[in-house]
Design goal:
The chain is of the alpha+beta class. It contains seven helices and 16 strands. 38% of the residues are buried. About 1% of the residues have low confidence.
Length: 336
Amino acid sequence: MKPGDFELVDPPVLSRGVMDRDEQLRFDTDYQLRTWSEARIVVVDENGRTPVTWETQPEATFREADAAAWDSAAGSGGTVVTRAATTLGEEPPSDAVLLGATGGVPYWAVRGKPDLLAGDDPSDWADLRAAGAWLDELGSGLLTVSVAVLNWHDMAGFCPRDGSPTHPHNAGWARRCEAHGHEEYPRTDPSMICLVHDGADRVLLARQPMWPEGRYSVLAGFVESGESVEACVHREVGEEVGIAVRDVRYLGSQAWPFPRSLMLGFHATADADIPLNPADGEIADAVWITRAELRTALQRGDWGGKPSEDGTKVVLLPGKVSIARTMLDAWAAHGD
């Protein structure tokens, strides 16, 4: 391993799914009908929330839907609450999505909302940004896939080729248009996210103008048409902070279904002595900090913290649900 190289210590939290995504089951209507009585349903509302139970209740309330509050709430053992599929009828409804199966149990997802008559408590519902880092592997995987595919369905009601209405097909993994039978499939927008360091003891962080004072993260950007992800790393870093990078190396990936991104994580090396030139209107500030300073920021807390009252510069970091945090944790753990 070259100096400055490092690997992720833990997988990104939204990449921990344990379901078997057997594509053939999406075409097997006999299987879907035969197993419907044993299947479970993940209900996700229009805001991406689903009911969750906890071994240790987080101090933050579910209604906050704020990853900042949740990252300091110290909850644990989150489990997505599923319903018996038969509560929806004797067979899968047309708008249900077959997520996969685990332990012989099929899981489906549908849009819905708290059923007060059935005893649902809306305050028990949480979204992926807020609760994703605290869910167990099954719950994290279920909610990540559910949000991603249901978001796509919400935006894919008309055929992009002929404009005719489309309808769900293949257990929710395709939509077919009325006019000519064209099929469309769930879309994912690739985006690179890159931790830039100097190959030694400093890491580059930047802040978007819309973020609160003190909130910083690593650099990211969407891959353009006809562009490789590695080329995107070079282009975006150059555009955002005005420096060149080298030794671009892949770290890992994580779905980010807000609404449909895939974050491809990299690290790269740059010269920390070259002046930074933050892109006007896109990057409010960019700074190099040492590994010791990053470790202090990690110990202090996540980006839900408050800036210091004595006026000293405080770096507030991404929450645990993001791959950015996973990358920063790994780089901070590397080295002496």
